[in-house]
Design brief:
By secondary structure, this protein is mainly alpha-helical. The chain contains 13 helices and 1 strand. It is globular, with a radius of gyration of 27 Å.
């Protein structure tokens, strides 16, 4: 007669699995952590319900005048009425389709690039898009070739913020790589010039760089040559951001083991091949979090262009606070700007996390 042993499966204690285990490990792992958790919950209890009442429950969403809005909650009618000003600045209303088309083309180009993963023409197509898109975007925004010319002093709002940040990011990245390699170079003149530039720019506030670009830079051009104010700001921001990107990438270069350099030399690779195929890809992968952090900081620093007469989204909100029909409603505008900036910057942060996971070469069990 066969004897079968019945195995009894015991469930783990409730304190070791599920929500209770997570709370013990993360929020109440010690007396200090428990006290801080309860304090944080109390502060949330004090701040979140009043904020929710002001933003949603007691707020006015209908398109009414300032006098018809309640004083207990937010008056989002102000934001609805000024939304075009916050977005496009003083750009002509009948030409709004042009920046909208620029945005649509950017989305289309990104989708095209993502769907070319297995194509042999991927590098050529992406390079073509990178070269052609800025030209197309400038022609659409500024005008010419049959389009009405819209001077850059009419650009403003979120459109201007994105233009300044995008140009600063795209232009500073390759120059920053060259400066980082120059600072690591064994050629003393190249290294000296790179060090002087990086340390000088990093030792000067961005507001000073913008003043120099706006006032001093035109002195280097020939007499009678008028340099566009936006172009001067873009040059100053690019110069500033380049120095920080160079230092971030230099940190990635220093983190690469010496054996990688020796292995590349042992394979007989030239300096260009060693740098572009072995060293630089690893350095950029290591530097992704810090690079994106620098880009986020640049995006926020674009608000400083107000000092040279350019009106970004935050400046447009400040400008509309003088409207006598909406006096006392600047809080709604600043909250709106905060939410817009948070969505953009949080999206950049999440995308950088995806890049880290995508290019990770660590072996995980």
């Amino acid at each position: 007669m066969a004897i079968f042993e019945q195995q009894v499966t015991k469930q783990p204690p409730t304190s070791e699995v599920g929500m209770i285990h997570w709370l013990r490990e993360n929020l109440f792992s010690s007396i200090t952590n428990g006290f801080l958790t309860l304090t944080a919950l109390y502060l949330i209890y004090l701040s979140v319900p009043p904020l929710a009442d002001w933003m949603f429950f007691d707020a006015t969403f209908a398109e009414v005048s300032n006098d018809q809005c309640g004083r207990e909650g937010a008056c989002w009618s102000y934001v609805f009425e000024k939304i075009n000003l916050f977005t496009y600045g003083f750009y002509p209303t009948e030409e709004y389709w042009r920046p909208q088309l620029v945005l649509a083309l950017a989305i289309v180009f990104v989708l095209i690039a993502k769907n070319l993963k297995k194509s042999v023409y991927k590098v050529k197509v992406i390079a073509g898009l990178i070269v052609s898109y800025p030209v197309i975007a400038f022609v659409l925004l500024y005008g010419g070739f049959g389009l009405e010319v819209v001077e850059t002093h009419k650009w403003g709002g979120l459109m201007l913020t994105i233009v300044v940040a995008a140009v600063g990011i795209v232009a500073s990245f390759p120059i920053g790589i060259l400066l980082a390699l120059g600072r690591q170079s064994e050629m003393k003149i190249i290294k000296f010039l790179s060090v002087v530039y990086i340390e000088f720019i990093r030792g000067v506030p961005l507001i000073t760089i913008l003043f120099m670009a706006s006032v001093v830079l035109p002195l280097f051009f020939s007499a009678g040559m008028d340099v566009d104010k936006l172009l001067r700001a873009l040059i100053g921001i690019t110069m500033f951001q380049t120095a920080y990107i160079a230092e971030v990438i230099r940190g990635g270069l220093q983190a690469i083991p010496e054996g990688q350099y020796e292995a590349a030399d042992a394979m007989g690779l030239s300096f260009f091949q060693k740098t572009t195929l072995i060293i630089l890809p690893q350095a950029l992968k290591i530097s992704i979090p810090n690079i994106v952090g620098s880009f986020i900081a640049l995006f926020k620093d674009t608000t400083l262009v107000l000092i040279i007469g350019l009106f970004d989204i935050l400046s447009m909100v400040h400008l509309t606070t003088s409207d006598e029909n909406w006096l006392g409603r600047e809080t709604e505008g600043y909250v709106f700007v905060t939410m817009v900036m948070w969505v953009i910057l949080y999206s950049m942060s999440r995308y950088s996390k995806k890049l880290e996971v995508r290019f990770s070469t660590e072996h995980k069990n």
